Amino acid sequence: MAMEATGKLRAIFETKQFSERFSKREFVLELADGKYPQTVLFQVTGDRCASLDQFQIGDEVRLEFNLRGREWRSPQGETKYFNSLDVWRIEPARAARPRRASAAPDEIEMPRSDEPRPSDVEDLPF
Question: How far does CA 103 lie from the centroid of its chain?
Fold first, then answer.
């Protein structure tokens, strides 16, 4: 589930290495929510951990992230549920890409009907 958010960096934590192939780095973003701003924990993983080095506490940033959820069952049979906000793009808020003027805020741009679709191209004999 792809989502986006813009806010102010409140905290940036050190990278944690969990295995040779997996590392993650967490950070906190303050999101404006009327009278009561929300402080939300996000994470980047792998090669994206270094992307936070270019930012400082107080910077306004724009994120694109996925909401992830998973189930875990303990050895005693107890089931727990966990959520994570996995960031795959972070950029200064001023660098945010403008939306097309003709697109509604939630509209997804689809290819025109006269453009070849990947399945059409794959069926060509050359």
Answer: 22
Tokens coding 33? 């929510």
Residue 115 lies in a domain: no
Q: Is there a domain that residue 116 lies in?
A: no
Give how many domains the chain has, as a whole number.
1
DSSP-assigned letter for residue 120: H
Q: Which residues contact 46 (CB under 8 A, 6 or more apart)?
A: 22, 23
Residue where the block lists tokens 């060509």: 124
CA distances from 124 to 90, 113, 114 (A): 39, 18, 16
Residue numbers of the domain that contains 79: 2-94
Q: What is the pTM of this model?
A: 0.71
Residue 28 per-residue DSSP state: E
**How do the pLDDT tens digits run along the chain, 126 residues long?**
789 999 999 999 999 999 999 999 999 999 998 899 999 999 999 999 999 999 999 999 999 999 999 999 999 999 999 999 999 999 999 865 555 554 444 443 444 444 444 444 444 444
Residue 82 sits in a domain whose CATH number is 2.40.50.140
